[in-house]
Design goal:
The structure holds two protein chains of two kinds. Chain A is an all-alpha fold. Chain A has a domain of about 190 residues. Chain A has 20 helices and no strands. By secondary structure, chain B is an all-alpha fold. Chain B has a single domain, classed as Methane Monooxygenase Hydroxylase, Chain G, domain 1, CATH 1.20.58. Chain B has four helices and no strands. In chain B, helix 3 runs antiparallel to helix 4. Chain B is flat and about 60 Å long. Chain B starts with a helix and ends in a 7-residue tail after the last helix. Classes of the chains: A mainly alpha, B mainly alpha.
């Protein structure tokens, strides 16, 4: 029993790291880069242990005596933890230059970031609804603070206030849903809910459906799906680049981890009852997100609005799960990975440019002739844009391909067609940037490629995107896109009861 | 089948449309009272210590209030633990010490960042 505790080691490490950094931040004479390195060190050790666990977990561990079954370790949660940790490590390293260029970052920033990751990891491991609520709140409350971290900027404070009011209001619905579910089932454990649904097929479950819908509202709000998407653009623009990156990639993955766990297994018997709602929400998210993205003038706003559109694609696959698609769940995980890489790179380039003092806002016009000024960065940006638009030979294309395949598999040709149409519309706002970069003369002379950890990582992410798109055919024994899909479906197998 | 769908969609409908409309309606419908007493912040029945909201007062009151709340709630967890200590055994003991240890780290942080200093 005590040896099973090593399965909890990654979480414990992240938490101890957060406490350590919190106390360490009181030492004033430490350089910011050192905080960053310490954080990355904690996360890396945690990631290595997590990778070892991923190899060894065969069945699910429930920790009956220690955590009273509130905590589950299986391949799915471990896979998601690997994603959170690598996302956080990449975010921190890519933003290394940005941290140095602003004077308001200190040790507490990194401690808060680690607390947020701890909440997300708990969320992936949760086997009980109250724990899920606490984890969501732990991840969100730290993010509220991080969004308003630049407290001298009115825009940042406004974003924080909007996020904290709307976010805490939305969080309330989750606990209301939990209360309703508890009223019917008499337990908040996910396994108990499942067995109740199996054994009471003829009894009245209206309250359970309403409770599930309330919980769904919170989760839809947190991923920024329509009609709960109004906060996304304002908050993303207002928050500092590292936080925007972190929210757009890691937080979305975290919420999808609980969505998959809830609707793949535990609420699966009654999930078909509300499928139509998910379909409407997915369509609304795609359409409204596209409209928002077209209207943006700032690049950060465009990426924020496009993240809404990407959530729409994943909701399409979530709909396909309910209709009975066999690999929609793995398609969602694959799409999360592909979006996470592309968005991370795109935000990374923006944050690298914003670490120059002159460029604070980064509108589209700032990118005129960018390819002549910094050819390598422009090439990387082009790859990210192509991947976000879903162009062939990038990982984004395969992500969209699997999503549309899973939707077509269920016979919803029209929905898949709408998705493809939206993907065509998205070409407008992604390619606008590419056109601006390449087809305008540059006002500035050509600059050398700056060798720093952030730029090298951005190029690395760009290579990974291309490799994920075409690498599988060229290098047969290294896991590329197909390997990721296999890993995802393997992980999903372990949660089937 | 369809009744469940209607129920579930009404949840979304209420949250997305009805609640905001209700909030806006309260501006136009219903009585509005506006007097001096109402606009005062509530301070547990005691008269106002600050007459105007523009008065400056030490932000440390606020921080100490938050810190007090945290460590106040901590005791709330200690009572049920103390009652069930025999049943929980060694693991319960260790778990509570981990919990207290985390809070002690918070206390050290609070202490070292000079929040408790009044000078």
């Amino acid at each position: 029993m005590i040896w099973d505790l090593y399965l909890v080691m990654p979480l414990a490490l992240v938490f101890i790291g957060a406490l350590f950094l919190m106390l360490f931040s009181l030492v004033k004479q430490v350089e910011l880069t050192n905080y960053n390195l310490v954080t990355v060190a904690f996360l890396s050790v945690s990631l290595i242990i997590e990778l070892i666990i991923f190899q060894n977990v065969e069945h699910d561990y429930l920790f009956e005596t220690i955590f009273a079954k509130m905590f589950i370790v299986d391949k799915l949660s471990t896979l998601f933890n690997i994603l959170f940790l690598s996302g956080a490590i990449l975010t921190l390293l890519i933003n290394n230059n940005y941290f140095k260029s602003r004077d308001y970052y200190n040790g507490e920033f990194f401690a808060l970031l680690l607390f947020s990751i701890f909440g997300m990891m708990m969320l992936a491991h949760t086997n009980e609804l109250i724990t899920a609520f606490i984890s969501i709140e732990l991840a969100s409350i730290t993010l509220y603070v991080l969004v308003g971290y630049n407290h001298h900027s009115p825009k940042s404070s406004e974003a924080m206030l909007k996020y904290i009011i709307l976010g805490s209001l939305a969080g309330v619905f989750f606990i209301l849903g939990v209360a309703l579910v508890y009223g019917v089932v008499g337990s908040t454990y996910l396994g108990d809910i499942y067995s109740y649904l199996i054994h009471h097929q003829n009894s009245d479950i209206s309250l359970l459906v309403v409770g599930m819908m309330f919980m769904m509202v919170t989760l839809l709000f947190k991923i920024g799906a329509a009609p709960f998407h109004s906060w996304v653009v304002d908050v993303y623009i207002g928050s500092p680049f590292p936080v925007t990156m972190f929210m757009a990639t890691t937080l979305k993955i975290a919420i999808f981890s609980i969505l998959l766990r809830l609707f793949l297994v535990d609420f699966a018997p009654i999930y078909p009852l509300i499928l139509e709602i998910i379909k409407v929400v997915a369509i609304a998210t795609l359409l409204l997100g596209s409209l928002l993205a077209i209207a943006q003038t700032q690049l950060k706003g465009m990426l924020a609005a496009s993240s809404i559109v990407h959530v729409g694609y994943m909701l399409m696959a979530l709909y396909a799960i309910g209709v009975g698609s066999s690999f929609a769940a793995s398609a969602i995980i694959f799409y999360l990975i592909s979006y996470f890489l592309s968005a991370l790179g795109a935000f990374g380039i923006l944050s690298f440019l914003a670490s120059d003092e002159e460029k604070r806002h980064l509108s589209f016009d700032d990118f005129k002739g960018f390819a002549h000024e910094r050819p390598y960065m422009a090439a990387a940006m082009t790859i990210f844009m192509l991947s976000l638009a879903g162009f062939p030979s990038t990982i984004g294309f395969l992500g969209k391909f699997y999503i549309f395949m899973s939707v077509v598999e269920t016979g919803e040709i029209l929905l898949a067609g709408l998705g493809i149409l939206i993907a065509f519309i998205s070409i407008y706002y992604y390619f606008k940037l590419i056109a601006l970069m390449y087809f305008y003369p540059s006002p500035n002379p050509k600059k050398r490629f700056p060798f720093a950890i952030s730029t090298l990582l951005i190029v690395g992410v760009a290579l990974m995107i291309v490799w994920g798109g075409i690498g599988t055919g060229l290098i047969p024994f290294v896991a590329g896109a197909d390997g990721l899909l296999t890993i995802a479906s393997e992980a999903l197998k372990t949660i089937g009861k | 089948m369809t009744t469940h769908l209607a129920l579930a969609s009404s949840v979304i409908f209420v949250i997305v449309l009805a609640l905001p409309i209700l909030f806006h309606l309260t501006r136009y419908v219903g009585a509005r009272s506006d007097n001096e007493r109402k606009n005062e912040p509530y301070e547990s029945g005691v008269g106002l210590t600050h007459t105007e909201s523009f008065d400056t007062f030490n932000i440390k009151f606020y921080v100490v209030g938050i810190v007090f709340l945290l460590f106040d709630v901590e005791v709330l967890f200690l009572f049920p633990w103390a009652i069930n200590l025999r049943d929980l055994g060694l693991f319960g003991m260790v778990e509570m010490f981990v919990f207290i240890g985390i809070l002690v780290a918070g206390l050290i942080y609070v202490y070292r960042s000079n929040i408790l200093k009044w000078a």
